[in-house]
Amino acid sequence: MIRNYTGSQFLSIEQVQSRYLNTTSERKATSGGLQNQAFSRILSGMENKTAETEVKFSKHATNRLSDRGIEMTDEQMQRLNKGKQQAGAKGINESLILVDQLAFIVNVPNNTVITAMDSNETEENIFTNIDGAVIA
Q1: 3-class SS at 126?
Q2: For residue 57, what is the enclosing H or E element?
Q3: Cα distances (Å, whole numbers) of residue 28 to 22, 61, 130
Q4: How far is CA 67 from CA 62, 114, 116, 119, in A?
Q5: Pairwise CA distance, residues 112 & 105, whole Å
Q6: Which secondary-structure segment (H or E) carries 95?
Q7: N or C: where does the chain have the smaller number of CB atoms within 10 Å of the terminal CB?
Q8: Is the pLDDT reported for residue 7 higher than 90?
Q9: Tell me: the pLDDT tens digits for 75-103?
Q10: What's the pTM value of the predicted model, to 2 decimals?
Q11: What's phi and psi for 117, nearest 5 deg?
C-alpha cells in the first residue's frame, strides 16, 4: 500500500477496481432494472387510464350506429369521452350524453355506450333509466 505524506493509506489500483468498478456496474444494472420496471409501471398505468377514459360501444350501440349509417368524427368522440368524464365526476351512473344531433346512453362506471340514437329516433324526447344528462 502507498502512504501519503499525512500517513493515511491509499488503496491499490486492484483494490479500487474490485471495490468500485464491480459494485458500480452491478449498481447500474440494478438501477437500470429498477428504472425499466418503474417506467413499465408508469406506462401501464397511463394505458389503463387511457382505457378508462375512452368509451367503448356495446354490440347493440354499434349495430344502431351501423344500421343508421351514423359515423362519428374524432371531435365528436372526444366530446363524448369528455361528457362521460363529466358525468363520472358528478357521480352519474347511467347518463344521457348529447353530442350534436346524437344521443347516447352511457353506463359511466363501465365506460360503455349502451345505445345510440340520432335526431330521427328521439322524436318523443323521452329517455328512461338514466340518472343524469350531459350536453357535450
Answers
A1: coil
A2: strand 56-57
A3: 10, 52, 55
A4: 9, 15, 11, 14
A5: 9
A6: strand 94-99
A7: N
A8: no
A9: 999 999 999 999 999 999 999 999 999 99
A10: 0.62
A11: -135, 150
